[in-house]
Recover the amino acids of this structure.
């Protein structure tokens, strides 16, 4: 055990030194924000990081007013040498997320992180209606992207309104025609431009660009503008009017500086935040943290052996796990089909609901006389055979139930993440639509006669898939809430809107761009013994200011 403790101590010391040895520079931030007619917003962040010294995994994302619902399909990082890596998004609290590369990956050099999430803008008051004595009934926009703890070369916010335009429109004339007005401080702090953004279906939307150069650390980019209500097709039926009619100024048609000088909104930072920003104090904190780490390891050494024995049962799934998606880049070969998918992988590819996929596994194991389903709501099973499951999926699935047969959401999430990771490897260069169509046809051809498909080693699960998919079997399965909700459910709305927007720089579009949330790193005894204490100490000492950043 002394050797193990020595190795753990060495690992933690090296990790601590690497954290403080990162020279990471966030060079620019670009945001695309699309206002939908139903009052929700699609928000895309593109973050250009450069790490000349050391290596980096991620950063903290916090300080936003909205509640983000992440679209994991479109959250990834593009590294050098055409590498695209999924992102793991860990919720720390309601206003803070840890954004890191999946699979414990790190990088040096350049990387562009892409984040995409949806948010309620109308209900949250970031957009709405107001009445001006002079200008009448107005649509207003009042929102700011997150602030960062370091200076930026530039920051650009593009707001795409659900207002259709011709691609060759005179956009300055159009802005004048719809009587677009901004607050004076917005004109002073930003270069403003107008253009058209192309949607997924060839429709063009009026876009306002707000650009800032040489952005100082912790500075805001609050944007406030107004347009007469009749020009903005947003459903305002669910809200009332807000008195936001401060002095309105028509947006300038040039980038010249206004007479009124831009004044940064006053932000008060705690004395503790200023203290931790001083280099000499950071060194002191580092030394103290080092001693705390050693002290925690000594205290935990007695329980370390127990932690090792229980390592397989430890999972770090989080309270808000979302069913993972696939990430499909630009490497697909037209017409290529992945023909060796397991039925469970095919179900994930076809976006079958998670409870249905659980039903397929249950039916397959039931047909093999390995288990019985005692209850569907809440789900409870009974193991009726001592025979060991033959496939890795079966073994991993059975591990997601406790001794009483109740489902464990953390281990069940690990099961689906394993499926998605394997599927990612199989289809990374395949034609996604052709592969989907192949398995739709394969599913239609299945029957309840297993003998016809015994040449397929997965025939039991193909039959189970067919049975569950085309019947009401297992329709009463009740899983923990975090295993049923995702981004697509949140963003679906009765106010359907054609032409969803995604910025061209992202390089992957629509719901077919998929994401693998790889939570299967650090599920070990070292995590159990040391992570909580070390994370709390480091977080409290080094990241107290409520702004995004903190590369690590």
């Amino acid at each position: 055990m002394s050797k193990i403790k020595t190795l753990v101590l060495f690992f933690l010391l090296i990790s601590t030194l690497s954290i403080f040895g990162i020279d990471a520079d966030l060079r620019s931030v670009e945001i695309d924000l699309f206002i939908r007619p139903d009052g929700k917003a699609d928000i895309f962040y593109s973050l250009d990081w450069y790490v000349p010294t050391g290596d980096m995994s991620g950063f903290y994302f916090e300080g936003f007013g909205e509640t983000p619902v992440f679209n994991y399909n479109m959250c990834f990082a593009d590294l050098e040498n055409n590498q695209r890596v999924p992102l793991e998004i860990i919720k720390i609290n309601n206003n803070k997320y840890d954004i890191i590369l999946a699979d414990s990956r790190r990088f040096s050099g350049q990387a562009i992180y892409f984040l995409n999430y949806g948010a309620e803008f109308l209900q949250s008051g970031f957009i709405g209606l107001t009445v001006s004595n002079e200008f009448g009934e107005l649509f207003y926009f009042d929102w700011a992207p997150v602030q960062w703890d370091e200076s930026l070369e530039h920051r650009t916010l593009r707001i795409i309104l659900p207002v259709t335009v011709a691609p060759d429109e005179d956009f300055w004339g159009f802005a004048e025609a719809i009587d677009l007005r901004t607050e004076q401080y917005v004109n002073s702090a930003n270069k403003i431009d107008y253009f058209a953004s192309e949607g997924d279906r060839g429709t063009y939307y009026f876009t306002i660009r707000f650009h800032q150069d040489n952005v100082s650390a912790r500075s805001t980019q609050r944007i406030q503008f107004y347009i007469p209500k009749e020009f903005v097709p947003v459903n305002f039926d669910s809200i009332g009017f807000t008195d936001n009619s401060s002095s309105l100024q028509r947006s300038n048609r040039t980038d010249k500086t206004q007479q009124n000088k831009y004044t940064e909104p006053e932000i008060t930072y705690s004395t503790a935040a200023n203290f931790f920003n001083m280099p000499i104090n950071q060194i002191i904190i580092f030394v103290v943290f080092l001693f705390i780490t050693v002290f925690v390891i000594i205290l935990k050494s007695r329980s370390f052996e127990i932690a090792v024995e229980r390592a397989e049962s430890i999972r770090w799934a989080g309270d808000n796990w979302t069913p993972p998606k696939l990430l499909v880049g630009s490497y697909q070969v037209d017409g290529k089909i992945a023909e060796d998918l397991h039925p469970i992988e095919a179900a994930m590819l076809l976006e079958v609901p998670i409870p249905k996929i659980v039903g397929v596994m249950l039916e397959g194991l039931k047909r093999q006389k390995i288990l019985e389903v005692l209850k569907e709501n809440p789900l409870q099973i009974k193991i009726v055979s001592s025979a060991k499951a033959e496939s890795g999926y079966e073994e991993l699935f059975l591990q997601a139930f406790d001794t009483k047969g109740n489902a464990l959401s953390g281990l069940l999430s690990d099961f689906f993440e394993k499926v998605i990771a394997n599927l990612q490897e199989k289809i990374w260069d395949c034609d996604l639509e052709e592969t989907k169509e192949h398995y739709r046809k394969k599913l239609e051809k299945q029957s309840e006669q297993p003998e016809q498909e015994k040449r397929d080693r997965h025939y039991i699960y193909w039959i189970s898939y067919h049975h569950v998919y085309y019947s009401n079997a297992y329709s009463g399965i009740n899983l923990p809430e975090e295993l049923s909700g995702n981004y697509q459910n949140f963003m679906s709305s009765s106010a359907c809107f054609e032409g969803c927007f995604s910025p061209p720089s992202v390089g992957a579009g629509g719901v077919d761009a998929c994401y693998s949330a790889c939570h299967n790193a650090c599920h070990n005894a070292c995590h159990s013994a040391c992570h909580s204490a070390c994370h709390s100490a480091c977080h409290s000492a080094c990241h107290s200011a409520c702004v995004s950043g903190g590369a690590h």
